Amino acid sequence: MNIRGRRTIRKYTQQPVGDELLNRLIEDASRTQTMGNLQLYSVVVTRSAEKKEQLASAHFSQPMVKEAPVVLTVCADFRRTTDWCLQRQASPGYDNALSFLNAATDALLFCQTFCCLAEEEGLGICFLGTTIYQPQAIIDALELPELVFPVATLTVGWPAEQPPQTDRLPLQAIVHQETYQSFGPERIDECYAVRESLPENRHFVEINGKETLAQVFTDLRYTRKDNEAMSEGLLATLVRQKFLKATGLLGVVPAVVERRPEILECDVVRFQNKKEKWVAFVGLLDGSPYEIFTGLQDDEEGIAIPKSVSKGFVIKHYDRDGQKRYDFQFVNKRGYKTTIEGLSERFNPKYWDYAKLISGVLRYRMPIDHVIRLITSLQLENDTINSWTTGVARVLKKYLPDAQQTPDEEEEKVEN
Ligand SMILES: Cc1cc2nc3c(=O)[nH]c(=O)nc-3n(C[C@H](O)[C@H](O)[C@H](O)COP(=O)(O)O)c2cc1C
Question: How many whole angstroms from 153 Cα to the centroid of ligand 1?
Answer without folding.
Answer: 11
